[in-house]
Amino acid sequence: MTSHEMLNRYNEQVISFYGPQLGELAWHSLNVDDRITAVSEQHANEILRAAEYCREIPGLAARPIRILEVGAYAHYGACKAASILGGVSVAHDISPISLRAGLKGAKAAGIEHTPILVAGDFHDLPFSTGYFDVVFCASSVHHTYKPSKVLNEMMRVLRKGGVLFLYNEPVGRIVSFYGFHSNRPGQFTAFENELHRRGSFFTLASPFPGTRPEYLFGMVENEHIPLDLMLDTLTNSGEVISWTLTPQAGRFENKIRAMIDDTDLETRLATFLIEEIQSVKPHLTERDMLLGMKLPEIDEVWQLSYRAAPELRKLRNMTGGEVQDHIARLFGAALQAMVVKKQECKMSDDLFKREAFLEDDVFNDLPSLQGVDLQLPAPTMPMIEDGDLKELAKFYAPTDWEAHTEAIGIRAFLNVNSHCRIALPPQSSPAILLLRFLAAEAPEPYRVNLHLQDGTILSSFVVAQSESMLFRELVPEGCEEVFIETSDLDYKQVDVPGHVRVMVGRLIPVVFS
Question: In which band, very low, low, confident or very high, does the pLDDT at 363 lie, cut at 50, 70 and 90?
């Protein structure tokens, strides 16, 4: 089988399987989140609150409390809580880079406790059944299309009487078209700002602003998780002892709620939505459409109206807390839930149920695809972030790339012309090339293309606004160079020097068996 045949056979399978992991790796290679300290403090306080419910766990008084933070990112809330309680903390995340950043942050904050760091997949936690007393998870369950599996795993590793605390988890929204992945609020286009001004943003677009960056990096943003699915899953093995919902309902949603007594609710709702769509349509520009933004068609409006009307009618006969719960189902919400495990289970004093190898302070339990060895610990290019500039120049030649340091201290290589070469060390197997770059907006939209020497285009992005993007492609064995080219939308080369800023470069060997 030739290299190109191998690429065609495995590219979709490998990139699809490892996509979120690779996206996280590239995303978190540049950690400039200034909220880490404040959020970690907040998480620590919530974990301490959850720990108060664990007093009845058999034998807890005779040993340190055990705390697990799932989807920890670079936060160190579990570490701080364990330092206060004299307990054991484990931080779990798919990104080893983030976990190490969290350890560094904890030390900088003066926390002497040493956490156990584990990089892995939260669909299959490597921990023994019944080991932990507290499991804390914040804003992470929506990063899967299998939320029940993740919730069940977190409940599995709890001891009977242990507490799972879900914090700030988004709940799916019935009354929404989920029209497109949105920018972060500070980067809204004029069209997005108009939707936000009118209050119809959450109905016409993604209900949770800021999903576009993660989407571009291949990370999962599942905003469709129903409240009842989460509650039903949790009550299979536990009891929800406290929960709060913060509904996403404003003036636009209140107008919809006011229709519930209408005799022809389906028609009234459809008419209202069609009028709103016609009002905002003039604000939708070509650039917006290039970014994937769209408005629903008439048939989509009627489908939503007939789907939502029966759920809206249920509000007629509801009172008290059940009204707020159903509003959350209709319009989305942020969920906080504390769950005590009631199910009998075999309790273990062994942390791991399978072997995980330790590398640079992190236990590695990352997912693997049968027949594919993704050699993450062995990238073969120097890192742009902190590599030697003379060594980096062998890959990003000064004739094509200008070394530059951003105002916030991030190093980048800026394109000098429209056709820029990146040298690759020859590989004896195919390899995944990761290139994270910032593409700056130009007067006219343009493309950034990644292609091989023979002209084969591996990937292409349309640039309609300034944003970070990621090339994540298999290159054939023996490939010694790739090219980044800027072109118009019809693939004709255009010069936009300094508009493509490569900030992360990795070449990760892949061995097939």
Answer: very high
For residue 319, what are the contacts with CB-CB under 8 A and spacing of at least 6?
none
Where are the extended beta strands (E) located within 377-430? 401-405, 411-415, 419-423
Interacting residues of 299 by C-beta distance below 8 A, sequence separation 6+: none
How many C-beta neighbours within 10 Å does residue 47 have? 30
Distance of CA 452 to the CA centre of its chain: 30
Cβ–Cβ under 8 Å, residues 130 and 104:
no
Phi, psi of 446 (to 5 degrees): -145, 170
Q: What is the pLDDT of the chain when averaged over all its residues? A: 93
What is the dotted CATH code of the domain comprising 31-172+217-247+339-369?
3.40.50.150
Contact 75, 102 (CB under 8 A): yes
Whether 73 contacts 214, CB under 8 Å: no
Q: Evaluate if residue 299 carries a pLDDT over 60.
A: yes
List residues bridging with 93 in a β-sheet: 119
Both tokens of 398, joined, read 């000064």
Report whether pLDDT(308) > 60.
yes
Question: How do the domains of the chain map onto residue ranges?
Answer: 31-172+217-247+339-369, 173-207+248-331, 372-512
pLDDT tens column, 458-505: 999 999 999 999 999 999 888 999 999 999 999 999 999 999 999 999
Name the residue among 7, 26, 14 with its Cα closest to residue 505: 26
User: Nearest to residue 243, comparing CAs of 295, 167, 301?
Assistant: 167
**DSSP one-letter code for 19:** H
The answer for residues whose C-beta is within 8 angstroms of residue 398's C-beta and 6 or more apart is none
> Measured between alpha carbons, how far is 140 from 221 in angstroms, rounded to an integer?
10
* Residue among 269, 245, 226 nearest 323 (CA): 245
Q: How far apart are CA 469 and CA 466, in angstroms?
A: 10
Q: Which of 295, 218, 285 is nearest to 464 (CA)?
A: 285
Cβ atoms of 177 and 304 closer than 8 Å: yes
3-state per-residue secondary structure call for 67-106? EEEECCCCCCHHHHHHHHHCCEEEEEECCHHHHHHHHHHH
- Helix, strand, coil percentages in the chain from 3-state DSSP, rounded to 5: 35, 25, 40
DSSP state of 127: B
pLDDT at residue 2 greater than cutoff 60: no
Q: SS3 of 286, please?
A: helix
| Highest-confidence segment of 102-111, 242-251, 360-369 | 102-111
For the segment 394-422, the average pLDDT, to the nearest whole number, is 93
Are 270 and 301 within 8 A, CB to CB?
yes
Which pair of structure tokens corresponds to residue 388? Answer: 């030697």
Beta pairing partners, 108: none
- Lowest-confidence region among 384-388, 391-395, 459-463: 384-388
Please provide the CATH number assigned to the domain covering 372-512. Answer: 2.60.120.260
